[in-house]
Amino acid sequence: MSSAAPAPVCETKSNAPNLCVPQPFVTICIAAGENKAKDEATKPLLLEVDSEENSDIIDNRLAALAITDTKAPKFSIHKNIICHYSPYFSAAFNGNFIEGQTQTMTLDVDEKAFGVLVNWLYNQVVTSEVGARPLLVTLAKVWMMAEEFLMPGLQDQVMDEMFKTCKGPGCIEGFGEFTQLADTHGNGDNSLVDLGVWTLTWCCKEFADHHIDKIPRAIVIKAFQHFKQAHQPAHDKAGKATRKATDFYVSKDNKE
């Protein structure tokens, strides 16, 4: 007499987000400001514990949200998902911040780039709305936002896509603008700059001539210095096999 086969058990991470039960949403509003190139988050407003002014502050913020331009883009995101992948949003929406009371945040970021981030939250894939690899400039903006929101895993996944673009043949659309974003991000010492320098170091003359007018001088100088230091490295004809995408990762775990 054969016994019934045991029911399969799905292996799941206890702390992984799921949608098996009703979940609350948070709302991310994209500001209509003109300067979206920086992709910097609006800092959450900390509320004083047991302060009588809290209710007035919250009421004023809610009133401001009520008259927000109805055409302004808004992303409704499951709270447990965005807070799981981003300590930044977890602190804002769960802490003693006004965002924790309103469950709404306004960001002055690029809408298309933030959409890539939101899609990644649910699908863990870096892709555009049409299912293609986003443009290099858009990827750079996603990378910078991921840094701001403390999401190193997303940064490294975005780096994979940027690396594929930079390693590809021909002229790269928006490479000059990409290097400008990289050069002005932080103090100019970041993985975006390293990727831009590496690409420029091993590019063909036609590529350099096409983009040189838009590339910051600091990156051109670094590329020239790297080229001088290269002494017959083991690389392919384009000189690009000497580096891997993981060389530009920010997460130590992913580098291993």
UniProtKB/TrEMBL annotation:
Domain of life the protein comes from: Eukaryota
SUPFAM superfamilies reported for this sequence: POZ domain
Stored InterPro entries: BTB/POZ_dom, SKP1/BTB/POZ_sf
CDD domains found in the cross-reference section: BTB_POZ_ZBTB_KLHL-like
Domain named BTB: residues: 61-130
Protein name, entry field: BTB domain-containing protein
